[in-house]
Model the fold of this input.
Amino acid sequence: AQSVSQHNHHVILSEAASLELGCNYSYGGTVNLFWYVQYPGQHLQLLLKYFSGDPLVKGIKGFEAEFIKSKFSFNLRKPSVQWSDTAEYFCAVMGYSTLTFGKGTMLLVSP
Amino acid sequence: GAVVSQHPSRVICKSGTSVKIECRSLDFQATTMFWYRQFPKKSLMLMATSNEGSKATYEQGVEKDKFLINHASLTLSTLTVTSAHPEDSSFYICSATSGGVDTEAFFGQGTRLTVV
Done:
């Protein structure tokens, strides 16, 4: 069975600080990897995804993530966060026909 | 991106009654649909995976007889919460994918179920 682990449940940053959210997964086969964001009162939106190719993927709103196969990791990064990035972030893994989410990280960016 | 419509967005029902939640893919054929439950301040818990025309695969700990899932067509999956109890109150989210090697899942807007 596949599983996803997100390292931090809550992160508090000031505007302009850099962000890195950790995500590790376990699965024996080929996976597709995703980061989703859920803004307050809204439904899940896709930030970025990795299927194959360049392990450094860029998503919307300045986010990027790096897939490190040897570490089973897919960490999310942003060089400079904004107040509007306050949201919950979910890492997800799709193995064979199943999409599994991590527990989520609540990011609070203070102005 | 593709659109997944979930209905209703909110429902309040009496304890002991059943509630049906619909999940529709509007502009693509969803060979696989997922049903999640989101608890307050917690992640999305996968309840079941359904493939069109097949019985749903339930995750461990999810009662099959309580949460009935039907994926009768390539554009519609339903989740029926039977004999609902207050502890079933939660936010239910569906997602759909067209399958294949490199596909992503698209999410419905969720259904807030309140059982009184």
